[in-house]
């Protein structure tokens, strides 16, 4: 039987003991996330460690797309052997998707638990991604769970699910719950104030140049040299600055796409593959497939000009 185990956060993540103890499991489960060999923890992971170490408040991570919110939770939980039960929010998401529903198995009715119930029963993380896409009244229906109270499943004969002491609730989103002011994250809804009041919040951001270099170097596995990778990261950061409405590389243009770490990794992998299959201008064409093709006409002109400035 799996048992709860204390881990020193410093030993686990920084190579030397810190005295900050985190609860995890002695063994991994089929729901424990796999290790990402190219992963590097961002600076803001310390906030998640602090959350793990103190109290039982639910956690709400917010920040731009592809900055690593979901993967950071999963990599921390991998280290702690924690099972993670994951679900992605959407405007029509309702309780049965989280809690469970009846299904027919071998001709008879059977109640199948959803990810929230499994996490509550087994002492896992319920990871609800894109929580700000939820209808605010559905989200507010989670309030008593967030407060640590049991769940009653009326559809399963009124089953009472008492939260396991290791149960934790983590939400991720692109907004801070107060709606999306950029207008670019379609479907984001302003959440109920009492609901948001229950969370500890952490703001997540893209990594520094040096951190991203470390990551893309692992993905490139020597096929692109550091000089090329540094230029690609410089380009990504310039796109992020233009997106945020700042000047970049002596340019002042408004664009509606940004450069996530996810896109950067895709660009690196495609640049190598396009070169190997003999495409002309592999870096440029890989950038089109990774990012530029989904931009508006005006933004594409700005992205092309930026490419000329950085890559000549
Ligand atoms: N710190 C990191 N180290 C290595 N790879 C990373 C890191 N952060 C992000 N990535 C890469 O970027 C991808 C996207 O990250 P992730 O899905 O965690 O972003 P997100 O912030 O949850 O995005 P979204 O808001 O779109 O859901 C990951 O699958 C991973 O490949
Ligand atoms: Mg995510």
Word description of this protein:
- The mean pLDDT is 94.
- The chain has helices at residues 9-13, 45-53, 69-79, 95-99, 115-122, 136-140, 143-146, 193-196, 209-220, 226-243, 261-276, 282-290, 297-311, and strands at residues 4-8, 21-25, 59-62, 84-88, 100-105, 108-113, 125-129, 151-153, 159-161, 168-173, 200-203.
- It is built from 13 helices and 11 strands.
- It is 39% helix and 17% strand.
- Strands 4-7-10-3-11 form a 5-stranded parallel beta sheet.
- Helix 11 (261-276) crosses helix 12.
- With 312 residues, it is of the alpha/beta class.
- A hairpin with a 5-residue loop joins strand 8 and strand 9.
- It has 2 domains: 4-203, Rossmann fold (3-Layer(aba) Sandwich), CATH 3.40.50.300; 209-311.
- The longest helix is centred in the last third of the chain and has 18 residues, at 226-243.
- Bound molecules: adenosine-5'-triphosphate and magnesium ion (MG).
- Magnesium ion binds next to helix 3.
Main CATH class of the largest domain:
Alpha Beta
CATH architecture of the largest domain: 3-Layer(aba) Sandwich
Termini separation: 61 Å
The major beta sheet can be summarized as:
5 strands, parallel
> CATH H-level name of the largest domain... which superfamily?
P-loop containing nucleotide triphosphate hydrolases
In short:
With 312 residues, this protein is of the alpha/beta class.
Key terms for this structure?
binds magnesium ion, alpha/beta, five-stranded parallel β-sheet, Rossmann fold, 11 strands, two-stranded antiparallel sheet, globular, 2 domains, binds adenosine-5'-triphosphate, 312 residues
């Amino acid at each position: 039987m799996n048992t709860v185990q204390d881990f020193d956060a410093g030993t686990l993540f920084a190579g030397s003991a810190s005295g900050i103890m985190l609860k995890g499991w002695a063994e991994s489960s089929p729901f424990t996330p796999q290790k990402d060999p190219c992963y590097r923890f961002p600076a803001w992971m310390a906030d998640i460690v602090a959350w793990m170490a103190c109290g039982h408040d639910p956690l709400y991570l917010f920040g731009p797309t592809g900055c690593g919110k979901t993967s950071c939770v999963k990599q921390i939980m991998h280290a702690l052997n924690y099972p993670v039960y994951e679900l992605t929010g959407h405007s029509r998401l309702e309780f049965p998707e989280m809690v469970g529903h009846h299904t027919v198995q071998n001709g008879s009715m059977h109640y199948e638990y959803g990810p929230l119930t499994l996490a509550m029963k087994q002492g896992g993380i319920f990871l609800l991604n894109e929580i700000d896409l939820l209808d605010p009244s559905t989200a507010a229906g989670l309030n008593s769970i967030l407060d640590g109270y049991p769940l009653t499943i009326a559809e399963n004969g009124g089953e009472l699910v008492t939260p396991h002491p290791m149960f934790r609730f983590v939400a991720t989103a692109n907004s801070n719950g107060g709606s999306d002011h950029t207008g670019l994250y379609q479907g984001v809804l302003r959440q109920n104030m009492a609901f948001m009041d229950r969370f500890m919040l952490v703001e997540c951001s893209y990594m520094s140049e040096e951190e991203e270099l470390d990551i893309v170097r692992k993905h490139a596995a020597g096929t692109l040299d550091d000089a090329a990778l540094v230029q690609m990261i410089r380009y990504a950061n310039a796109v992020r600055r233009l997106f945020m409405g700042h000047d970049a590389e002596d340019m002042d243009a408004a664009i509606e796409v940004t450069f996530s770490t996810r896109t950067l990794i895709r660009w690196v992998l495609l640049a190598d593959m396009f070169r190997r299959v003999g495409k002309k201008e592999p870096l440029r064409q890989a950038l089109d497939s990774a990012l530029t093709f989904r931009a508006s006409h005006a933004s594409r002109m700005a992205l092309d000009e930026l490419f000329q400035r950085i890559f000549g």
